[in-house]
Amino acid sequence: MKQIPLDLSADQPQSFDSFVTGRNAELLERLKLLATAGAEQSAQRGSASTDRFIYLWAEAGAGKTHLLHALATKAGQEGQRARLIGADSPDAAFDYHPQTSHYLLDDVDQLFEEQQIAAFNLFNQIREQGGCMVCTGTLPPTRLELREDLRTRLGWGLIYQVHDLSDDEKIAALLQITLDRGLEIPPAVMMYMLTHYRRDMPSLSRMLDALDRYSLATKRAITLPLLRELLQQESGEQ
């Protein structure tokens, strides 16, 4: 049988509703508030209010980027302008514009020297002229290998660790996804997926989508043998 493309690299739309909260309830509410109240906070010029500067840290796969995209989406729905900035962004992405209320800097620990200077300058402009800034990294600010001035700025505001889900929480989240879609997937399939595939939720969600499509394409029920077959195909495509 011809192999079916899995498209496991395609990210699903990221929103606050699709983020599995786990132990991050306080953080989630803080970001929702920032999205809706950002217009008022963006006018707080000359203030280093902790409400306007937030730093999120966690290992890869915990959901930091998901939260930034969700914040950008929510801010846009509120009629505000948000800008996502990463290590691969052009230099102009670090320019300050009064019309932009939310500056969302992902993977700050991956910025090279010139970008770190630009991020430091942007931070100061936001503080002086208004706006909000949310940054992410893999470590707390005090442990980042960055310029001291930028590292200090990142520690000025609120600092949250994005907590990864426990195995039980991941299984519960995946089961809820299947219930919402009307799928029937045995718990053993979920457990096998968790122990034999990448363990972060974005990857697990994409595999669940691929498993659903594979089941429809092959006209077979979702079972453990079907999952094993799909994982073997995915491994062969890499």
Tell me roughly what share of residues is in helical segments: 40-55%
Structural class call reads: alpha/beta
Q: What is the 3D shape?
A: elongated
Q: Give me the oligomer status.
A: single chain
Query: Any low-confidence stretches, pLDDT <50, length ≥5?
Result: none
Distance between the termini: 19 Å
Strand order of the largest sheet: 2-3-4-1-5
SS field, number of helical segments: 8
Q: How would you spell out the order of helices and strands?
A: HEHEEHEHEHHHH
Give the rounded overall mean pLDDT.
Answer: 87
- The total strand number stands at 5
Largest sheet features: 5 strands, parallel
Strand content: 5-15%
Radius of gyration: 20 Å
Q: How would you portray this structure in words?
A:
- The chain is of the alpha/beta class.
- The chain has helices spanning 25-41, 64-77, 113-129, 148-154, 167-181, 187-196, 201-218, 224-237; strands at residues 53-57, 82-85, 102-105, 132-137, 158-161.
- It has a 5-stranded parallel sheet with strand order 2-3-4-1-5, sandwiched between helices.
Task: State the main characteristics.
single chain, 238 residues, alpha/beta, five-stranded parallel sheet, 8 helices, 5 strands, 47% helix
